[in-house]
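Chain A, query sequence.
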Amino acid sequence: MKKMLNVVCSLCLLIPAGCGAVKTSTPPASLAPDALNQFDSDAYKSLATAHAFAQSAAGNGPTLTPTEKAALNQFIQYLNLADTLYVSYHSGAASQTAMQAALTAVNTSEASYTATITGGK
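Chain A, predicted structure.
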């Protein structure tokens, strides 16, 4: 036990501030390449995730019912609009508020499509 205390105390001497409280804050997420700020990065990552989902869902196209296809098409339409707005936002021509509204529409339509194919479960 005494050896262990010596090791711990030795480590405290190596840390300039001594053994203080452990910080529990979450480090900021890494930014996407060429992102202007955290929101820009998060928007880019959200759209990339939505595109992966859309591509996967589109692979099920031949087996979807007309209602499911309509929900998927609506999702893809909102995704395309969000992509166009993202280019404008990223270049400074659109507001963050508009971009957030577009992302919300993408998320809502994706959830609606998912509810349609799972029967609302």
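The chain has four helices and no strands. Helices lie at 2-14, 38-58, 66-90, 96-118.
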